[in-house]
Every structure is written in C-alpha cells, then in structure tokens.
Amino acid sequence: MTIKEVQQEIIDEFSMFDDWMQRYEYIIELGKNLPLIDEKYQVEENLIKGCQSQVWLHAEDKNNSVVFTANSDAILTKGIIAILVRVFSGQKAEEILEADTGFIDEIGLKEHLSPTRANGLVSMVKQIKMYALAYQAKQ
C-alpha cells in the first residue's frame, strides 16, 4: 500500500465516528495494537525531543524500506505514534520524505490536541522524516 492509500484508509476510519470522544478512544485502541519497540531501542537516543510524554522511535532499513517501531509512556501519545508508524513504516525513504502529512489535518487530529501534544506530533513527524533522510543518504 502506498502512503496516500494508508492515509486515505485512516481518513475513512476517522470519518465513521460521530464525535471526538469516540475518536480518542479509537486512537487509544490503535496504541494498544502498536507493534512494540524492542526494549534495547527504548534508550535516550531514540527519544523524540519536543514531546511532553516519552516517545521512543526506532528505524531500520529492511529491503530498501524504512521500518519503524515505537512506544510511549502515555496512552493517547502511543496511539498517535501508532498512526504515524502505520502510515510510514515499510515505505521507501524518498516516499516518506515526499509524503504530504495533510491527512493529520483532515482527520482533525492537530486541532483536538493540547498545544504540547500538537507540538509533540510535529516532532514525531519531523523525526520520521529525519530517519528517512538518513537512510536516503546511505543509499
């Protein structure tokens, strides 16, 4: 699946909910299903700077695709990173770098987060793009 297709799938899923309480519950549910980062990667250097909660993000190159694993100590934040991992994991570095993140606004996520969580979301996206840039430079 392309990044755009995964983003559209997420937009469609969020459109099924009537209110933001249901969407928050869904985000938390997504976090519970997040494939967890190996404990050996839950280290300081994998912490995303700029997040109110602790969020660890690890990337590795598998068959010329960037595969992400993550975890967070906060249930809502864990759901947010789960959405981003779902969109970007397994994609080529150049596709991640070129990807538009407008789907975040389309589902209304940023506007329904506290300012500190919204900043954390921006930091998460930035870190994902930085990993992609690093892998692209290696190729």
Automatic annotation (TrEMBL):
Start and end residues of each Fe-S metabolism associated domain: 12-130
InterPro entries recorded: Fe-S_metab-assoc_dom (IPR003808)
Coiled-coil segments: none
Family, per entry: Belongs to the SufE family.
UniProt-recorded name of the protein: Cysteine desulfuration protein SufE
